[in-house]
Specification:
alpha+beta, Alpha-Beta Plaits
């Protein structure tokens, strides 16, 4: 299992905008090959918002970033402060 990790900064007090973006992209994420589940999170005070989305394979996760990235830039590009952080991580579960 692999995860895409994305962080953006919208500035303080932008929770409503962050939720709007998450709600817009949730169905897109669910439709992608290998999708398992997603979690969105944020800090209202700093304006940092992010997602951790699980996929069945590394290829699925990388394809998801390639698909979502350009669409996210079109949708939120004018309100995002700085460059988004986007990474793919392998997920493991501890044995104990």
């Amino acid at each position: 299992m692999y995860a895409t990790f994305t962080m953006i900064n919208l500035g303080p007090g932008m929770r409503q905008e962050a939720e709007k973006i998450a709600n817009q992209f949730a169905p897109v994420n669910r439709s992608l090959k290998g999708f398992i589940r997603y979690n969105y999170f944020g800090d209202v005070e700093t304006g940092d918002y992010g997602s951790l989305i699980l996929y069945e394979s590394k290829e699925d996760a990388e394809n998801a970033l390639a698909t979502i990235g350009p669409e996210m830039k079109k949708t939120a590009g004018d309100i995002v402060k700085g460059e988004p952080i986007r990474r793919v991580f392998e997920i493991y579960e501890p044995t104990s």
